[in-house]
Design goal:
Shape: globular
Organism: Chloroflexus islandicus
Largest sheet: none
Number of domains: 2
Strand content: under 5%
Helix content: 40-55%
CATH architecture of the largest domain: Orthogonal Bundle
Protein name: DNA photolyase
Number of helices: 15
Structural class: mainly alpha
Keywords: FAD, Flavoprotein, Lyase
Oligomer: single chain
Pfam families: FAD_binding_7
InterPro entries: Crypto/Photolyase_FAD-like_sf, Cryptochr/Photolyase_FAD-bd, Cryptochrome/DNA_photolyase_1
CATH class of the largest domain: Mainly Alpha
Radius of gyration: 19 Å
């Protein structure tokens, strides 16, 4: 399923969105931490402390991220003013360097989109390695956030009810759908685009292609140790599959063989 570009009238848009929402997660709502408007954006920008960002930005539990992306996505803040605010308050440090580097990625995605247009909705390069999982559409348990995997389900519930998901969790979900379940990346990209308040065609589609290796030199994979490390062990502590049956509970070497039939060195392009 690709992102629809042929719904032009208001009636078509309403009908398309109504159909797209059928069967999606309908559990209890979680209040969204994101509020709209320039004033709210500036408050969040001023409140963000970039000290320690390089160390904590991947931590889904500690959340050392700015959550400024929705405001950047909709033009409430610009990349330049966010950069200048962070550098003026915290100076040039490894933390601010890493933060500005993330802003640069957003700018890069936009430049690629400006150059290629709707071509980003298709594989930009051949996948370096294809998953052994059979290609399939989005399973209903993903739409319902009921896979039984706490790290995946809680991340999806946050997406469905707040319009946000931590970037590291986005990588887990994107890798799980593509490499473990064999879901076409466009199915996952549409799911994210439908719900993310910061979703835009460039960052969304190109990030999914980065995970799938159609716009990167290798597919991104993760394992249980990665989940435990970047969630303070909270997800695994609550997961019914932690004692046995977790599909991520393996070494990267074994996962490379299981998912792609190659060694880890081959997966990473090392000789």
């Amino acid at each position: 399923m690709q992102l629809r570009t042929d719904v032009t009238t208001r009636a078509e848009q309403v009908a398309y969105l109504a159909g797209a929402l059928d069967g999606l997660y309908a559990g209890p709502a979680i209040p969204s931490p994101i509020r709209g408007g320039r004033r709210a954006a500036l408050r969040r920008l001023r409140a963000f402390d970039a000290r320690g960002y390089a160390r904590t930005r991947n931590d889904v539990a500690k959340r050392g991220v700015s959550v400024l992306s929705p405001y950047l996505r909709h033009g409430v803040l610009t990349l330049a003013e966010v950069r200048d605010s962070i550098l003026s308050r915290f100076g040039h440090t490894p933390d601010t360097e890493k933060f500005v580097n993330e802003l640069a990625w957003r700018a890069f995605w936009q430049l690629v989109y400006a150059q290629l247009g709707d071509r980003i909705q298709h594989d930009l390069e051949p996948a370096k390695h294809r998953s052994r999982a059979p290609r399939r559409q989005l399973p209903p348990e993903v739409a319902a956030a009921s896979t039984g995997l706490v790290c995946i389900d809680e991340s999806l519930r946050e997406l469905y009810t707040t319009g946000y998901m931590h970037n590291h969790a986005r990588m887990w979900v994107a890798a799980y759908l593509q490499h473990w379940l064999g879901v076409d990346w466009r199915e996952g990209a549409e799911l994210f685009y439908r719900h993310l308040l910061d979703g835009d065609p460039a960052s969304n589609s190109l990030s999914w292609q980065w995970v799938g290796s159609t716009f990167s030199h290798k597919p991104y994979i993760f394992n249980r140790h990665n989940v435990e490390r970047f969630s303070d062990g909270a997800f695994c502590a609550r997961c019914p599959l932690a004692a046995g049956g977790c599909p991520f509970d393996d070494s990267y070497e074994n996962l490379a063989q299981r998912l792609f039939g190659v060694s880890l060195a081959e997966l990473e392009g090392r000789r």
